[in-house]
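[job 4471] stage=fold_predict status=RUNNING
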Amino acid sequence: MNDQDHARPVVPPAGTERSQDLTPAVRGRLAAERIVWLCTLRPNGSPHVTPVWFVFVRGTWWIGAERASVKLRNIENDPRVSLALEGGEAPVVAEGRARIWHVQPGAAASPDAAPAPDAAVPSDAAAPSNATVPSGAAVPSDVVAAFLAKYDWNVIATPQSASSRSGRVLFEVPVDRWLLAGTAQ
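[job 4471] inference complete, writing structure tokens
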């Protein structure tokens, strides 16, 4: 830990007032932009950066991926991620810890489902992901609706397959910290 780590402000729980304080311009970008750059950490600590589809619902990033993806393997090893919208004139960059939702073939959305409760892991600690949402948990219906509206993509429509690594996952990423929220520094 260095001196800058001690100077970091205490971050409120993910998805609380920090996301609610976003400017209308940033909220508009989160609603309209189709790509966010997701940075995960490989087991050797090197970054893996990839463009992904996303929605921002209830102050939380949601990202779809295939079960065979490098992203999933990295997040299973270390849930810490960063996300960045394209464009350097009004950058939007956030950090968080991904939770993994394994979408079951033939799954249904739940209108009453809420994002998973926060994991009790300090924001500066590296820890293997124990943040997999319990198997069979229904994806919140507002998240499914947001992906349908933005991409015409039903994130819970997963084909049956014999392989345990085929199918779909969703990453739920509550914001631990906004590094840049629409203002270049």
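[job 4471] summary: The longest strand covers residues 168-181.
[job 4471] exit 0
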